[in-house]
Amino acid sequence: MLRLALRNLWRNKRRTLITASSIVGGLVLIIMGNNLNHGTYLEFIRVGVSTTAGHVVVQGEGWQADPDPLKFQVPDAASVASTVQAAVPEGTVVQRTFLGGLLNSATNSVGIMTTAIQPEAEAKVSEWHTKLVEGEWLEPGDKRGIILGVDLARTLEVGLGKKVVLMGQGKDDVASRLFRVKGLIRTGAAQVDGFFALVSLESAQAFLEQPGTASQVSLHLTDPGRTDAALTSVQGALSSEQGLEVLGWKDAVKPIYDFTKIDRRMNNSFMAILGLMVALGILNTILMSVMERMREFGVLLALGTPPGRLRRMILSEGLLLGLFAASVGLALGAGVTSYLVEHGVDYTEMMGETMEVEGVAISTVIYASWDWFSMSIYTVVAVFLSVLATAYPAWKAGRIAPVEAMRHQ
Question: Is the dihedral of CA 333, 335, 338, 342 positive or negative?
């Protein structure tokens, strides 16, 4: 049966190639689009996790609902960091404190968010230091240096070496601290460039009058796939600690994770619509093919070919066509993806240098990432749709009377 179906497909190469090309083209577009989107999701998550959280995060219980650095700090953060490091030796552990305040210069004042970091450790896990456009990175223990977003510096009318004063809520009263601008960063994210600063962890501890504390102790992994195992290890290591909560990155950066889930659903809906359009195209082409071959089918029926055998032959043609086209489509889709993994697609002219979601900015040069599971699903679905598209033509061909079929020209 399969040999006969293959012979029938090969007999009319033009018709077969037209039908196959619609499957190949649709599958290539779907694979390419999915892998580009997958790369975008991974980049948003990577940047969000590395700069604002970690793959595993230890924080004061209640911080997630009310991020107040005076209420929910990790006490003796250095000890907690050592415990986390011992539990997952292959990871990198950093401490951070997040606080808001009013940053004042001689001419202006701006409400900002500040992240207090350990400069050397931070440079291993995030890209803040690569965003410097002027000045230099913070030194360990630097209690007076501050790095500003370029737009924030412009608003405050300050440059390198100039003095600024951070004011905010201290332990018992309003606190203030003098800093000197040590560097300027540009990320492309309006929230960061215009309303963000970096200081050392020690300076934040002094500002809040909470020595040894941190808002967050985060664990960063080179393999995000080990997050669940690392989360379990850290939870076990800190099980005796009171007042702390341990979260995986999906809970720690929930807005970013939720955005990727919603966008992925929209992407899957688009892919489903595109797949339906391809299926309708296949149905139309195969139906035309069946109508053109109606006389041939009439002869086969007149010679005693059972209608069921005729239907199976047509379905076999759809199966072979689907397998051939899906294989070619998968190969071409993989080839295009391989190029996009290396070179990406540049959307700079349409979207500027960066695109921003939830305060996280990534480059508008988008690189694809391999999503083998989805690629295999789309390939199987392409074969299934090819067979499904032949079901109605096969049913129609099996029901026609031989005499009526032989009258077709």
Answer: negative
Mean pLDDT of 363-389: 86
Does 6 have pLDDT greater than 60?
no
Domain boundary among the residues 174, 208, 242 is at 242
Of 179, 210, 242, at which residue does a domain stop? 242
pLDDT tens, 292-315?
777 777 777 777 777 777 777 778
Distance CA 371, CA 47 (A): 19
CB atoms within 10 A of CB 348: 11
Quick one: tokens of 371? 């999503």
Of all residues in the chain, the percent with pLDDT exceeding 70 is: 89
221 and 288 assigned to the same domain: no
- Backbone conformation region of residue 212, classed left if phi is above 0, alpha if psi is from -120 to 50, else beta: left
Domain co-membership, 104 together with 190? yes
Q: Which residues, in sequence order, are CB contacts of 198 under 8 Å at separation 6+?
A: 114, 115, 116, 117, 128, 138, 146, 147, 185
Query: What pTM, to 2 d.p., does this model score?
Result: 0.75
